[in-house]
Write a structure and sequence with these properties.
Number of helices: 22
Distance between the termini: 35 Å
Shape: globular
Helix content: 40-55%
Strand content: 15-25%
Largest sheet: 10 strands, mixed
Structural class: alpha/beta
Bound molecules: S-adenosylmethionine
C-alpha cells in the first residue's frame, strides 16, 4: 500500500473527527510524529498499518462518512488547531491579542460609502455578465467561482444576469471570502436569489486562492480543524430563507475567524470553513452538484476576480498567488475575468494634487498576464491570455451626483463622498491620511477637480484568461 493512500485515509479521518494529526498518531499507535514521518517518506510495518486501520474503524466517529448536520457540528467539541490556540477557549493571553477578531478592513466606512456613491459594482457586474455570452456550461450545472466576494454587490448582480440568461440551469456557485462582516453582508443578499433561482447551490468558504476552487486545504493540520456546514433551506419564500440564514450568525461568529499573518501581514483564517446552502425542496435535483467533504472538482465555467488584490501588492503576488491558481481552476471553455483599478481620470487628479508623487497603479494587465503565463508553464498550454486593446479592456465608472450639484456650490457631503472615493480607490493608508486632513487643502483640491470635470470618474482595467474547449 502506498504511503499516500494511508495518509489520505488518516487525513479524511482527522477532518471528520476534528483530531490533530499528532493526536491521531499518539492515540492510534502511540507515536505523535507518525503522520509527519509518513509524509517524509517513512515506512511502517504491516502491524502498525493494522493498528491505524483499526483505530480509524473504531475511533471516535467510527467509519462515519456521511455529511455532518448542523447539530452534530455544534455538539462536537471544537477541535484544536495546533499553534493557534483553542478558538472556543475562554479569555486567555491569546484571546486578548489585539490581532484576534480584528475588524477586517480598516477602511470599512470607506468601502460602504464608496459602494453606495459610485457605480463601480454595477459597471463591474455588467462587464462580468457580458462573459455569460461566451461560456458553454455542461450538465449538471453552470459553475461559477467568485474569488473575493466582498459584500456580494458584484456577485448578486451577476447571479441575476445568470438567471436571466439561463433560467432553467442549476447553478453551482462558490465564493471565497475571509471576512466575517462581508459574509454577513453577502448572506443578507441571498434569500431573494434562492427564491428567484431555486436550483442554486451556494458555497461560501474562507480557504486560500490555491485551495478554495477545490474546497480543500493542502495542510494536514488545517484539515484537522476543517469546518464543513450544510444548510438545506426549508419552505419556499424569501422571508423563510432569510430567517434560516440569519440563524447561522452565532455559528459563523464562532468559526469564521481570521487574523493577520505575522510573516506577511495578510489575513489568514484560523480554521478552514466551507458553508453549503441550497433549497431542501431541490435536494433531489441538486444531489450531484452539492459538494462533498474531502475536495471536489473545480472546472469552472466562469471565474470572477474583481479587485482581488491590493494595487500596491507585488506583480509576483498578483500573478502567482492570485491569478495563476484561478486560471488552473477553469474547466474546458471556461473564462476568468479579472478586474482591477487602472488609475488615471479625475479621481487620480485629486490624489496627485495632495500627494504629487503617488501612483499606486504600477502593474498593468500585460505584465500580469505575462507573469501568469510564465508561472503556469506547460499547464497554460490550453489557455488563451486575452489582454485586449484599451478600448475593450478599460471601462469607466462614475460617482453619482445630482444634475445641478456640481455647477452650483458643491455640498459638503458630495465633497466628502468624492474625497472618500478618491482615497479608497487609490488605497491610501490611514497614517498618510491623518496628516493631510489637518487642514482643508484636501477638500479644496477635491472641489477644484469636481468643477473642472463636471463630475468624478475612475477607470478599471479588465483582462480574460480562457481555456480552450475540449
Ligand atoms: C475582496 S475585495 C473585492 C470584493 C468584490 N469582488 C468586489 O469587487 O467588490 C474587497 C477589497 O478590494 C478593494 N477594492 C474593492 N473595490 C475597489 C476599487 N474600486 N478600487 C480599489 N480597491 C478596491 C478594497 O480594499 C476592498 O476591501
Amino acid at each position: 500500500m502506498h504511503a499516500e493512500e494511508i495518509l489520505r485515509e488518516i487525513s479524511d479521518f482527522c477532518r471528520r473527527s476534528g483530531l490533530a494529526e499528532s493526536t491521531f498518531g499518539r492515540r492510534a499507535v502511540n507515536d505523535g510524529k507518525l503522520v509527519s514521518r509518513l509524509r517524509d517518506g517513512g515506512r511502517i510495518t504491516t502491524e502498525t498499518l493494522d493498528r491505524i486501520r483499526n483505530f480509524i474503524a473504531t475511533g471516535p466517529l467510527g467509519s462515519n462518512t456521511g455529511r455532518t448536520s448542523a447539530i452534530e457540528l455544534e455538539r462536537r467539541p471544537a477541535p484544536h488547531y495546533p499553534g493557534i490556540g483553542h478558538p472556543a477557549a475562554p479569555a486567555s493571553a491569546d484571546a486578548q491579542d489585539p490581532q484576534r477578531n480584528f475588524r477586517f478592513f480598516d477602511n470599512r466606512q470607506k468601502y460602504l460609502l464608496f459602494v453606495n456613491t459610485c457605480s463601480e459594482k454595477q459597471v463591474v457586474a455588467h462587464r462580468v455578465a457580458l462573459e455569460l455570452a461566451n461560456i458553454h456550461p455542461r450538465p449538471p450545472a453552470l459553475r461559477l467561482f467568485d474569488a473575493g466576494v466582498g459584500d456580494a454587490s458584484v456577485l448578486t448582480r451577476v447571479m441575476r444576469a445568470m438567471h436571466e440568461r439561463f433560467p432553467a440551469m442549476p447553478f453551482y456557485i462558490v465564493g471565497k471570502e475571509i471576512s466575517l462582516e462581508d459574509i454577513r453582508l453577502t448572506l443578507e443578499k441571498m434569500p431573494d436569489r434562492f427564491f428567484e433561482h431555486p436550483a442554486t447551490v451556494l458555497v461560501l468558504t474562507n480557504l486560500y486562492y490555491s485551495e478554495a476552487p477545490w474546497l480543500t486545504t493542502h495542510s494536514l493540520s488545517a484539515a484537522s480543524s476543517f469546518v464543513w456546514h450544510e444548510l438545506a433551506l426549508t419552505g419556499n419564500s424569501a422571508h423563510r430563507f432569510e430567517t434560516q440564514i440569519a440563524e447561522l450568525q452565532p455559528f459563523l461568529a464562532e468559526n469564521w475567524k481570521a487574523r493577520l499573518s505575522p510573516k506577511s501581514g495578510n489575513p489568514i483564517y484560523e480554521r478552514p470553513i466551507v458553508l453549503v446552502i441550497y433549497r431542501e425542496d431541490h435536494r433531489f435535483l441538486l444531489d450531484s452538484i452539492v459538494p462533498r467533504r474531502g475536495g471536489t472538482d473545480a472546472n469552472y465555467d466562469l471565474v470572477i476576480a474583481s479587485q482581488p488584490y491590493r494595487a500596491r501588492a507585488s506583480l509576483e503576488f498578483k500573478a502567482k498567488r492570485v491569478i495563476a491558481p484561478l486560471a488552473r481552476a477553469l474547466g474546458p471553455g471556461g473564462r476568468l475575468i479579472a478586474i482591477h483599478s487602472h488609475g488615471n481620470g479625475p479621481g487620480m487628479e485629486i490624489i496627485q494634487k495632495v500627494w504629487p508623487n503617488d501612483n499606486p497603479f504600477t502593474t498593468d494587465r500585460h505584465q500580469i498576464l505575462k507573469t501568469v503565463k510564465q508561472e503556469l508553464g506547460a499547464a497554460g498550454r490550453d489557455l488563451n491570455f486575452n489582454a485586449y486593446a484599451d478600448n475593450r479592456s478599460l471601462f469607466r465608472y462614475d460617482m453619482h451626483t445630482l444634475p445641478t450639484e456640481i455647477s452650483t456650490a458643491i455640498g459638503t457631503s458630495t465633497l466628502f463622498a468624492a474625497w472618500n472615493a478618491a482615497i479608497y480607490v487609490a488605497q491610501v493608508e490611514d497614517d498618510r491620511l491623518a496628516e493631510v486632513v489637518k487642514d482643508s487643502h484636501y477638500l479644496d483640491a477635491t472641489g477644484e477637480v469636481l468643477k473642472k470635470h463636471g463630475g468624478l470618474w475612475f477607470w478599471d482595467e479588465s483582462f480574460v484568461i480562457s481555456r480552450k474547449r475540449e
